[in-house]
Amino acid sequence: xxxxxxxxxxxxxxxxxxxxxxxxVLGVVIGAASIxxxxxxxIGMNRNFMKNMESxxxxxxxxxxxxxxxxxEQSSTTSDKKLLDDEAIEKFKNLEDVDAVMPILDxxxxxxxxxLESSIRLLGIDLExxxxxxxxxxxxxxxxxxxxxxxxxxxHISEQFYDPKSRNGFGNNKVDLMKESLKLFPEMxxxxxxxxRGINIKASGILEPDQGEKDWSAYMDINSLEKIYEDIExxxxxxxxxxxxxxxxxxxKIKVNDIDKVADVSKxxxxxxxxxxxxxxxxxxxxxxxxxxxxxxxxIGGVSLxxxxxxxTNTMVMSIYERTKEIGIMKVIGAELKDIKKLFLFxxxxxxCLGGIVGMVISFLISQIIxxxxxxxxxxxxxxxxxxxxxxxxxxxxxxxxFSTFVGVLAGYYPAVKAxxxxxxxxxxxx
Amino acid sequence: MSIVIKDLKKYYKVGDQVxxxxxxxxxxxxxxxxxxxxxxxxxxxSTMLNLMAGLEKPTKGEILIKNQDITKMNEKELxxxxxxxxxxxxxxxxxxxxxxxxxxVALPLTFCEIPKKIREKESYKILSxxxxxxxxxxxxxxxxxxxxxxxxxxxAFVGTPExxxxxxxxxxxxxxxxxxxxxxxxxxxxxxxxxxxxxTHNRDLARYADKVVxxxxxxxxxxxxxxxxxxxxxxxxxxx
Lengths: 431, 240
Fold this sequence. Notes:
Oligomer: heterodimer
Structural class of chain A: alpha+beta
Helix content of chain A: 40-55%
Order of helices and strands of chain A: HHEHHEEEEEEEHEHEHHHH
Strand order of the largest sheet of chain A: 2-3-8-5-7-6
Order of helices and strands of chain B: EEEHEEHEHHHEHEEEH
Number of domains of chain A: 2
Strand content of chain A: 15-25%
Number of helices of chain A: 10
CATH class of chain B: Alpha Beta
CATH topology of chain B: Rossmann fold
Largest sheet of chain A: 6 strands, mixed, barrel
Radius of gyration of chain B: 18 Å
Helix content of chain B: 25-40%
Number of helices of chain B: 7
Strand content of chain B: 25-35%
Number of strands of chain A: 10
Number of strands of chain B: 10
Distance between the termini of chain B: 35 Å
Radius of gyration of chain A: 34 Å
């Protein structure tokens, strides 16, 4: 029997017993829909969590800092200490799965704009990899190496200025950084009282707000920043205390090409003798918790699909009793054993598949309703990143469909074998 | 396609008792022969037919069809063998009520994986032959007994079977219809040059056979190779 004929025959058998087919399919619909909806809640929760994490910083970025050393060790065995220098940067770059490496020079400076001033954190970074580390300008442009002393400011810096001579220093002192002429005063160890001449700087742009550390920092080209400090040190002539070994960079950011590889890379860096930290470390524990929640939700849905599977088996077994004679006749007039088996398996699979398809539609509707209701509960979205409590990715739809079909086949297997093994003579004699 | 039966025995166990349905039967049926197995109910004639058709296994003995011993075939091979070589006419028609006459007749061809167009054409042809040209789309429930058996005959003879088994083909029909049905069976058998093996308790039907096998209590009493009214009458006298 060709598969085509088999399908036609199977479908017409299902059609012949409309009510029963409908009820059995309904069971699968409920099972499939409950699995999809339950899992969609877990996935939605996970997504909201991930979104919150992402707003805290990139998940695939590792922060590397020099190895922490206890105070007493610092003086004695400094030679063992791994330094964050250019050599280290090269090593990081050569690690597998590393996309970009950004050494950071971390300085505190005072910026003066007319009467107003502000102490800010100025980070020297490699301008070439700025885009890779998700620097997005809201206004103006990112600094370029062509222009000297260009700085891009975080979104909230402009609100941090105060007037040192005024009594109420922090007033409405918002500075238009793009327009004002700015001067930079590096803060140096021990020579803060020394009168400095400020260095002229220029704002190239303001970063987009990102609810993270970037809002509160300013960035400039690492080489320019380094040069500023070298110049000052030369002038201060502090030769007596020639620094021995010091980290050239205060920290390094490393971007990994795949979130899943972050842990690997972190471990390698730790093994090299540095301290690596990423948001992902925190995520790991959370992920396990969510996997647990997901399993419970899926399990609840799974129970109803299991009940539906029993329904399919029951329907097919009933169908055998009802069709015993028919099966017998078909066998006598030339149906092969595999035809009978396939016919029953196909009918069971169709019940599963049909239930899966309708279940997909139903779960889509339920998911929409849940989200609508949830949105109205949360006051039309407080802007806290929670938008969808229930989220159904395409793969969930497809695997639910596949799974319910598979469950159908599984549930139909016993009846199919039973039908196949039916004795011809007995079958044909039943009325 | 000749059929050779050697020392065929079939015992059933019913509770503690052993019922000997066939007690050692030898028979040879030549290709193209019309063979009528005649016996009262419980004589073992139906058992013999079932064994020849491979619907059940004998306790002992061989059944050679086309020089193949079908008693040694497994379920799968038997199904394939029936599909290729055998047609069936039943006393109670055994049509599928959900299907139309045409679909019922086409069913054996469907199992043989013959394309839809061809099998429908073949089925239509043979339904026309049995006089149901106008009833091809009727369901069995819409047909009379005689018409249903015509569909049954069409289903048995459609395609290219080499043996047709008929189990009391006129058992449920009145005498006039029986006559028509038998004529039809014989006509198509002759036309297709098939071997026909027919089981009946109706002595009238034996008139049409080339070979009549008288069976009683699981044993062959007599094999008549020519059909003559006298032989049958003599058998009647003996058995009554």
